[in-house]
Design brief:
Helix 9 (about 250-260) crosses helix 13 (about 325-335). A hairpin with a 2-residue loop joins strand 3 (about 200-205) and strand 4 (about 205-210). The protein has helices at about 5-25, 75-80, 100, 110-115, 135-145, 155-165, 170-180, 230-235, 250-260, 270-275, 290-305, 310-320, 325-335; strands at about 190-195, 195-200, 200-205, 205-210, 215-220, 225, 240-245. The chain has 2 domains: about 65-180, Cytochrome c-like domain (Cytochrome Bc1 Complex, Chain D, domain 2); about 190-335, Cytochrome Bc1 Complex, Chain D, domain 2 (Orthogonal Bundle), CATH 1.10.760.10. It contains 13 helices and 7 strands. By secondary structure, the protein is mainly alpha-helical. Strands 1-7-6 form a 3-stranded mixed β-sheet, covered by helices on one side. Strands 2-5 form a two-stranded antiparallel ribbon. A two-stranded antiparallel sheet has the order 3-4.
């Protein structure tokens, strides 16, 4: 081969390499498929920062009556933050709560509805239990107790409390709680919006809350799930839900992953989770549930932090998903009617 031909061939190969590199770099992160290597994302694994020094002047009034819209009841600050007496603002909106749900068992077991709320809808930092199969709820408590279910981030307080406290409930208490929550009806609870720019937030109370002064920032590759009304959420008003901002295009990409499996990257989710992802037998519904929660569960299954029998079945399903895929799936599932 002449030197001229060699030089020509080399030029062609270099040009081809440059083209391939440029094409790869033009892909958005959500189109790049790679195994999960990212650390737990802070926006889904909302770990509280260290508590600031106490300020006596900022201490709330412990006895002043507090109110929420649509309720004739009043609770004090101390009552709102009593782990063993759930502030039930809307008692007519749900069946009577079993004692373990409304009061727990002092000093070991917190009232189930304190975190999961009397209507079972839950908050971003924990699970929405409403409408889950009772057998599924019971199995999750067993998995927490045996150690096969934990969090990929050991500092995540809601999970550590489930392991250290709620697993001390008796079989009868767990059955009563599971029966109560499984009988509750799901309702729309999370408003999903695609947005390029979102309010700046920070972690407080194991969830994202809007910072003050109010500023906007790029959403990037995040889901920003935050209370619709922070004051009512802090009062544990179970009639005030959440808003979840998701990246533009995530709903379309999530729909493709969920409904087609994206050419073998995963399986069609309805195979196990039923039509419209509303559950099938003892497989839970994931439609309309917290996208932050869904991200944590898929991440934990892939990392091995969730290793119960059902999670082992999910292991090959999530094995090839990137964090971007997980984000898209969670965004789409959360946007569906529960």
């Amino acid at each position: 081969m002449t030197r001229l031909k060699v030089q020509s061939l080399t030029a062609v190969l270099i040009a081809a390499a440059i083209f391939l590199i440029a094409a790869a770099s033009s892909q958005t992160p959500s189109t790049i498929s790679k195994p999960l290597t990212d650390p737990p994302p802070y926006w889904a694994f909302a770990v509280n920062p260290p508590a600031p020094p106490s300020d006596a002047s900022a201490k709330p009034d412990e006895i002043a009556p507090l109110h929420v819209p649509g309720s004739k009841h009043a609770f004090t600050h101390s009552q709102v933050h009593d782990f063993f007496n759930v502030p039930d603002w809307h008692p007519a909106a749900h069946p009577p709560m079993p004692d373990i749900v409304a009061h727990g068992r002092q000093p070991e077991v917190y009232a189930c509805a304190y975190c999961h709320l009397p209507n079972g809808q839950g908050r971003p930092e924990n699970s929405s239990l409403a409408g889950l199969p009772a057998a599924y709820i019971i199995q999750q408590l067993a998995d927490f107790k045996s150690g096969v279910r934990k969090s990929s981030d050991p500092d995540l307080k809601p999970v550590s409390l489930m392991v250290s406290l709620e697993t001390k409930a008796t079989d009868a208490e767990i059955q009563a709680a599971a029966n109560y929550f499984s009988a509750l009806k799901r309702k729309p609870w999370i408003r999903v919006i695609e947005a390029k720019f979102v309010p700046k937030t920070h972690v407080a109370g194991s969830m994202l809350v809007v910072s003050t002064p109010h500023e906007m920032e790029s959403i990037g590759d995040r889901i920003i799930e935050t209370p619709e009304n922070l004051e009512r959420t802090e009062l544990r008003d179970d009639s005030s839900g959440f808003i979840a901002y998701v990246p533009p295009g995530s709903l379309k990409r999530g729909h493709a992953l969920v409904t087609t499996g994206a050419n073998g990257k995963t399986i069609i989710c309805s195979t196990c989770h039923g039509p419209n992802l509303k559950g099938l037998k003892n497989v839970p519904s994931i439609a309309g549930r917290s996208p932050s929660y869904i991200v944590r569960q898929l991440y934990d299954m892939q990392s091995g932090a969730r290793a119960g029998a059902a999670s082992q079945q999910m292991k090959p399903v999530v094995a090839s998903l990137s964090l971007y895929d997980i984000l898209d799936i969670a965004a789409y599932a959360a946007s569906l009617q529960p």
